[in-house]
Specification:
Blueprint: E1 2-5, H1 16-24, H2 31-40, E2 53-58, H3 69-83, E3 88-93, E4 107-110, E5 119-122, E6 129-131, H4 134-150, H5 154-165
Parallel strand pairs: 1-2, 2-3
Antiparallel strand pairs: 1-4, 4-5, 5-6
Helix pairs in contact: 1-2, 3-5
């Protein structure tokens, strides 16, 4: 699973408090259901063998303290703990990279172990869209490669997240 996000912490890496604060911004009638659904997806991390996951985020994500200082610091700590897993990579594109291949919006590439083709999932305002056409999936993979090329290393990413968490870098 390869995920890119430009505005928020990816859902699979969110704490419950962060998800609640973020999702409440659109004032849904079913906030508790939305938060519960988001948290249930994190069962992936409880499997005996978790999927390989690679998350790339724009630094803007770290500059948006959704939920306030306490929720935000807890979220950043959670992000760092998730990044310690050998099957989970987290990288940040630093703000000095002003233009990159992810500016069109968030997306996820899914690769399966069996002979199933890769799938591209593109997030949208009210719902996402799954793309199966090989050219579009290849374009998504190319965009992801370009994002990896401009992102900080996982070690430098962890240091940057720690700087935000400890208040050494202002949001």
């Amino acid at each position: 699973m390869r995920v890119f996000e430009a505005q928020i912490i990816p859902g699979l890496l969110q704490t419950e408090d962060y998800a609640r604060a973020m999702l409440s911004a659109v004032r849904p009638d079913n906030l508790s259901d939305l938060v519960a659904a988001r948290m249930s997806r994190q069962e992936l991390f409880e499997r005996e063998v978790t999927p390989r996951m690679w998350f790339i985020m724009d630094e803007q994500v770290l500059r948006r303290p959704i939920g306030g200082d306490d929720v935000w610091r807890a979220q950043l700590g959670h992000l760092l703990r998730r990044a310690e897993s050998p099957r989970t990579l987290v990288q940040v594109i630093p703000r000095k990279v002003v233009a990159h291949a992810g500016l069109a919006g968030p997306f996820t590439l899914l690769t399966f172990e069996k002979e199933a083709p890769d799938v591209l999932y593109v997030d949208g305002f009210s719902q996402g869209r799954t793309a199966l056409e090989s050219r579009e999936v290849a374009d998504g993979a190319h965009a992801y490669d370009l994002l990896r090329a401009v992102a900080l290393s996982p070690e430098d990413t962890a240091e940057l997240i720690g700087d935000y968490m400890e208040g050494r870098t202002e949001p």
